[in-house]
Amino acid sequence: MSDSTMPGAEPNPPIVAAVDGSAVSQHAAAWAAADAALYGCELHLVTSVSIPVGFGPVPVFGEDDLGRMRAVAEQALTEASRSAGEVAAGVRIRTEVTTDPIIPHLLELSRRARALVLGSRGLGAFRRGLLGSVGTAVTRHAYCPVAVVHSTSAIDPVSASRPVLVGVDGSDNSVPALELAFEEASRRKAGLVALHAWTDVSAGLDVSIMGWDAIEGSEDAVLGEALAGYAERFPDVPVRRILVRDRPVRSLLEESEDAQLVVVGSHGRGGFTGMLLGSTSSALLQSVECPIIVVRAAKDGAGTTN
């Protein structure tokens, strides 16, 4: 999460976490606070009291109703701030209640943020904000990396001893993910596992008949080339390389069970040996138990789809 990669970046941009009062959003706030402490930046907690508009009659709210909604939102921020403060007492915390719809507001904040942090699901109704549709839209269109936290913030001592897991496919799109993974591992004083899955063919097939031995050597070179230079830049990060003949989602999901954090690109090079396709990152967002960061290539910008 290098400052120089952020459009309109501040000298030390904040980490923005969306909260809605749900238990998982408290985990997200705690994780965001711990990450903000690693980078020495501000934590910006935001929630929305926007009235959802959809099919059917539009509900009418009076001043008392809106006041109660704001009170609930303020309480959610208070609880999230408490959770964040317990994890990282020295981090400066700023809170915000917006009346704007949460998706466009988060995307606008992402222009000047180090990262956005979301819970994997929310409360629904008017305290929604971290539902699947929000997470999908934000991870696809944000200008900065997006972290999604599930049922645990993974900041306990046992989790903190585990490595950071990154998916590598050798494409330009996976470079930002690899850069961020090394930086996170370095700041967390953790090891890094670089995994390259080099086929989407079922591992149950007789791959020897298909001539995979030659392809395996080529794919091993792809992984080596992708990792070149990082040992010199991050000498404090021990790296374990994994080259596997398997589907990307399955291999990354299996390895994530022993990771404190997963980092993936939003999409990859596609084709037969594609690694970080939109479908892969989307599947992992729904499946992994530890926090996961999705990193878009800077050239993608917001507003594009995978």
Give your account of this protein's structure.
The protein has 306 residues and is an alpha/beta fold. It contains ten helices and ten strands. A ten-stranded mixed sheet has the order 3-2-1-4-5-10-9-6-7-8, with helices on both faces. It is elongated and about 70 Å long. The chain starts with 14 loop residues before the first strand and ends in an 11-residue tail after the last strand.
The helix count comes to: 10
Any idea what the CATH superfamily of the largest domain is called? Answer: HUPs
Q: What is the tally of beta strands? A: 10
Our measurement of the CA-to-CA distance between the termini, rounded to an integer number of angstroms, reads 21 Å
Please tell me what the overall shape is. Answer: elongated
In the CATH hierarchy, the third-tier topology of the largest domain is known as Rossmann fold
Quote the beta fraction: 15-25%
What is Rg? Answer: 20 Å
So what's the CATH class of the largest domain? Alpha Beta
Question: By helix and strand content, what is the structural category?
Answer: alpha/beta
Reported CATH architecture of the largest domain: 3-Layer(aba) Sandwich
Summarize model confidence as the mean pLDDT.
Answer: 81
Write the layout of secondary structure elements.
Elements lengths: L14 E4 L4 H17 L3 E6 L14 H25 L5 E6 L3 H9 L4 E5 L12 H10 L4 E4 L7 H4 L3 E4 L7 H14 L3 E6 L14 H16 L2 H4 L5 E6 L3 H9 L4 E5 L12 H10 L4 E4 L11
Parallel strand pairs: 1-2, 1-4, 2-3, 4-5, 6-7, 6-9, 7-8, 9-10
Antiparallel strand pairs: 5-10
Helix pairs in contact: 1-2, 3-4, 9-10
